[in-house]
Amino acid sequence: MNFYWIKTNSLIKRIFSNYIWDIPNMENKIYLTFDDGPTPEITEWVLEVLKEHQIKATFFCIGKNIQKHPAIFNKIIDNGHAIGNHTFNHLNGWRTLTGEYLENIDLCKSGLRLRSAPVRLRSAPVRLRSAPVRLRSVPENLKSEILNLKSPLFRPPYGKIKTTQSKKLRQLGYKIIMWDVLSADFDQSISPEKCLENVLQNTKSGSIIVFHDSVKAFKNLEYALPKAIAKLKQKGFEFDVIR
To answer: SS3 sequence, 126-186?
Structure first.
């Protein structure tokens, strides 16, 4: 059984104060975020829900999914949402060497920067086998594109990142975005109603809320997201992107 906090513990926030867990403000703003896309049909469904409610959100995208589904990724941007880096291969930072982790993040940047142009090694697209693609295998002319990405937002998959990794990323100008409220939509052992409850009972002004635009999460996401948005609007919250 996986352990996780629905509401991030205040002690954790104090210990890891270099990470962004919430964004305090006086305007009752909250921040919806979506991890692990773009995913066919699911990300597009999320975009339609957000459009219907006229709100913006922040999408932390996996590089390999950007490469597979560039049109959906472009649609996220064209709809006015913010984007962030979620590594190319959804790596667990605790289990990954720092150099390899940073290279994987840089490779994801290529998709974020080039938008609809897939990353290509020689004349063929990047192929994922058992090991993550490494930046040193990318041609020099593409590396310059990878390293010029403007977006400073990064979220570590699973929220797991080593101190050495976070230090290097902050030196490179990244903001490490964590969360205040976890919907737990990915947990297939909970009901959609519980997923909704997780969000409604724990959101406050400044909260960063995590959903996932993934196949695994969709059962709970489909039920909880529209209802959460409607209820939170009724409570007077405003939605904004992370900058």
So the answer is: CCCCCCCCCHHHCCHHHHHHHCCCCCCEECCHHHCCCHHHHHHHHHCCCEEECCCEECCCC
